[in-house]
Amino acid sequence: MNDQSLKVDLSSTPWIKCQGGNMIWETSMLFKRLSPLMSPSGKEELIPAEVIVCKKCGKVPKFFSDAAKGIPDELKSTCHLLASPDKGLIMDK
To answer: What is the CA angle 38-41-46, rounded to 5?
Structure first.
């Protein structure tokens, strides 16, 4: 593999916005309950799953819910906006 550093100009990459226009995200946790019948310990287990949510509306953005299968529909954002320096705001459903 080539050991040269790849230089990326981040000013030309789009900011990801929530459907409400917010660009601030935070991490939250979802938990799945594992039945004692399926658990290696034979006891009920809680399995944590970290997710990204919009700090303003609390919804999981499309770019994350598409990659993380199994997010409950009521937690999914229906769209997000991309802000591009050369194209302005673009609706992406």
So the answer is: 70
Please write the tens of the pLDDT for every residue from 31-48: 999 999 999 999 999 999
Say whether 78 sits in a helix, a strand or coil.
Answer: coil
Q: Which of 34, 56, 55, 31 is nearest to 45 (CA)?
A: 34
Q: In the chain, how many domains are there?
A: 1
Whether 3 is in a domain gets the answer: no
Domain of residue 18, residue span:
11-92
Asked if residue 4 is part of any domain, the answer here is no
Residue 77 has a CB neighbour count (10 Å cut-off) of: 19
pTM for this one? 0.61
Looking up tokens 């949510």 gives: 53
